[in-house]
Amino acid sequence: MQNKIGLIALLAGVSTLLLIAISVFVPWWRFTVGHPTIAQVNFSPVNFNIALFGSQITIPLIFAMNLSCILTLASGGIIMVIYSLKPNKPYSKRLLGFGYKQPLFAVIIFVVELFALTVVAKAFSGFAVPLIGSGVLQIPSSMIPGKVSVSVNVLAAFEWPFYFAIAVAGLCVTARVYHRKIHQVTPEPSVPNTSIIN
Amino acid sequence: MGKGLKAKSMQHAVRDGNMQVLSVVLVLISIGCIVGPIGDVVLMYRNNLPGLVIPPQINNLMNGNKNNNQGNDNNNNINNYNNSNYNNSDNNNNNNGNNGFITPTFVSSQINNAAKTFTVTVNVTNSFGYDLTLNSMNATVESSTDNYQLGTITLTSPVTIIAGQIALVTVSGMWTQDAVNYVQNNFSGATSINVNLADISIDVNGIVVQQTQPVNVGNVPLT
Predict the structure, then answer these.
(1) pTM of this structure
(2) Which of A87, A108, A178, B8 has the most crowded Cβ, counting Cβ within 10 A?
(3) Interface pTM (ipTM) of the complex?
(4) Rounded distance between C-alpha atoms, residue A58 and residue B138, angstroms
(5) Between chains, do A193 and B4 touch, taking CB under 8 Å as contact?
(6) Could you tell me which residue, B70 or B62, shows the higher pLDDT?
(7) Measured between CB atoms, does B16 come within 8 Å of chain A?
């Protein structure tokens, strides 16, 4: 039973580290403008970049935030692995408490940021950016001189690492729940009386 | 028994102390992971804080510096190409790079009176520095005097124009018998007719530009 707890946490920790490696190269959400593509936004908590007419645009502050997220997730993953090796130590619960939250927070923050991004885009520029699927983005007439209308074909999609991230977060929560469940059944081993007497 | 309790409480105290150390370490890891990279970047850009959120590419655009060195090189290449290949053509070709992103130059036209169709081929120079695909182009040809619809024009097939290069774009059009009757009734003896292009729709790389206001294209010869 104790091995099972360790196994889930080990899987969660390794998956977290794997998620970081994947997310650097494959975004969680991709927004494509034009056909063929003229601009592309790749968004994940560990990598946010904009490609406009073939040139990459990197915003230094967002790059730093991505780096923070990589380090936070990596620390969470490593600590989950350490926990999985020693799940019954007195300090294990604290390790688990730190480790299991990181992928969960990453997913929650990502979803909130994505929604905020679309709301802000709508509020400031009038662009109704779709979260999923293809659409036609109408440039507001106030931004274009003369009797000209400009529309752009856009495509937005969640990529498979996003679903993998949800699975990893689920795995981490499962490890946490399992830890609680097991420790309710088998309380933490107390210090043997013999050693105290001696 | 009292000694045992004392030892037990000491062990608990040590354990609690270790727990506190662990908690502090975990908190420090959390703070370090967040503050470290962000703090580093802020320090790097301390003399140029707007640069934290505005990358150089956007900054150049905001300052009106649209053409980077690469773009200028492309323009020069295009001009050189034009100079070497179109010496016999008019001088407009030499300024292609400066007129806009896409500059059409008339090449040839064909008219089929029996089928009431025509094709016009133009040379298009892409001085944008990025591959562009002309997916579609549609327009209605109208008489400029009373906006009578004479015919339509469409792009024959999608054309990809490589950055800094020239491509041939063929546009086909057709006119109707009604248009023939209209011209015969209203412009008998005229050698040309002034026309507008209306409902223009151009799709370049999925960007669809539609102009509802008619654009005058001048006189079109009738013979």
Answers:
(1) 0.76
(2) A87
(3) 0.78
(4) 38
(5) yes
(6) B62
(7) no
From the list B5, B15, B34, the residue facing A68 with the nearest CB is B34
Q: Does B44 touch chain A (CB under 8 A)?
A: yes
pLDDT at B12 over 80: no
pLDDT in tens, B98-126: 445 566 787 888 888 888 888 888 888 88
Say if residues B70 and B97 touch (Cβ distance below 8 Å).
no
- DSSP-derived secondary structure letter, B63: T
Distance between CA atoms of B29 and A177, rounded to whole angstroms?
Answer: 24
User: For chain A, which domains are there?
Assistant: 7-142+149-180 (1.20.140)
Higher pLDDT, B91 or B37: B37
Query: What is the per-residue burial (b if ≥16 Cβ within 10 Å, else e) of A72-98?
Result: bbbbbbbbbbbbbeebeeebbbbbbeb
Tokens 């016009």 correspond to what residue?
B120
Contacts of B75 (CB under 8 A, 6+ apart): B67, B97, B98, B127
Which stretches of chain A score pLDDT less than 50?
Answer: 1-2, 191-198
